[in-house]
Amino acid sequence: MNNKEINLKWKNISAFKNRKGYKALRVTSSCLPDLFVAIDGEGYRCLLLYLPKGVNIKTKEKNKSKLLLSFIPRQRVLLIKLKDFNFVDLFDDLILSIYSRINGIADSEKASEEFITTFYKWSDFFEDGYFSSLGEKQIQGLFGELFLLLRYVGESNPSSINSVLKAWKGPYDAVHDFEFESMNVEVKTKRENKPYVKISSEYQLEKIIDKGLDLLVVSVIFDLTEGVSIHDLINNIIEKTRSKMGDLGIIFHAMSQKGLTVDSTREYNDYRFIVKNVKSYDCTLSGFPKLAISNIPQEVNGLSYNLEVNTLSDYLIREERY
Asked: Which are the contacts of 238, defined by CB distance < 8 A and separation ≥ 6?
């Protein structure tokens, strides 16, 4: 099941004539629960989960500004209704997320619980309440993280895509920007003509036991005409994630940590960058110049310092030019 198939369902439903109430089509014949996409009498898009008698529904109606969750006892239907036509693409992604979680669940009670849980996980993504005011340095730093996330997503496959998305920890203000199973990655984004990057704590270049640590320096130039914005990068990441059936909720939740939605990133479209090169350094090699928790007195803390990257050639793993 993918976005193209869902769009075809909506077109087929819209072609129905002279039907009262809900016009509905089953999501797929292979889905074990009775899951349907539907359009109600007012033209709003809905997702319906039909349940047999005896299933205990543990939820109350939740009526939010963009979404409605309710249970209709007479028809034994759990319903999610989209109340804002500006969010149809995101609603399709919600449908795909619910489908991927419940399509193989034969137990109707478990399927209904997963249906409700996924609604609550996604409901905030439909709100207009997020607000952020990112400065140029924050935008530039986020650009570098997203540039690398796009690369990692592109290198993933359907079985690994969600693990890759979960590895992105930058928005959560974790010690390192990416945390993979055997390797952590710290990302620094700088202008091409700047000779150094800023290390903001004694923990950023400190390795975790039994894991490697790479410092990736992304050098960019500002170009309003030919450059790429964070909004462009996010849309590319979403497109690739969809194609690999990844969980977009992971991306949206990470963005929400910085008060961002896909739509709100448009306000930063005047900040556009071209990546000139990416250099990867092994921070774990002996002699790598760093002030870290393992090599400073315990009385010293709260460090912030500049690291000259043009002196790190002995620790260079690879360089990619664009």
From this structure: 248, 251, 262
